[in-house]
Predict the structure of Manganese transport regulator.
Amino acid sequence: MAPARRGPAGLTTSEEDYLKALYALTEWEDAEVGTGALADQLGLSPASATAMVQKLAAKELVNHVPRGAITLSETGRREALRMVRRHRLLETFLRDELGYGWDEVHDEAEALEHTVTDRFINALDARLGHPRHDPHGDAIPSADGTLPVSAAIRLDRFTGSRAVIDRISDEDPQFLRRAAAQGLVPGALIDLPHQLDFIEASLIWVRKA
């Protein structure tokens, strides 16, 4: 059996995926994450997630008490943000330089993010003019892991009369296509009440206009 491929930090691609998934689950929602939620995010079995979390905890990349919440350690968060940076810069490159639609970039970036070096990513960042956000409005971490704090909240929880779209979840490509057709993109103004259903509104984050 071939040895597991490892990234620049010595982590396997699976370990990198788990750290990034754990970050994604906690980036916009202040909620405790267990192995079940992590397994769902990655499309894997709870048993597989439990085994990997134990490995990550042994490497001091996550903090975890059996049957308790999982959180990233300082080192784990740094590695997660390194992968987030790769993913979001690759998405931006695919859209801006190769003509991909914003509904197409996620899966392509997922495939590429483990195969390129940090040197390549830093060169790509410079080539793109150091973009601050990816095609969906998500902030791109800097090379040192700095990430600006966003005050945006989900549209279904927003109570004002007018808002600016800050970011849109990239979970559903079909919704991204519908949103683009309606002009619902980062930076667009939206008047309330809106005509979106509850699920659609939960995929959009806004700030006060």
Summary: Residues 74-96 form the longest helix (23 residues). The helical segments are 13-27, 35-42, 46-58, 74-96, 105-112, 118-127, 173-181, 198-201. Strands lie at 62-64, 70-72, 153-154, 162-168, 189-191, 204-208. The CA atoms of residues 15 and 56 lie 7 Å apart.
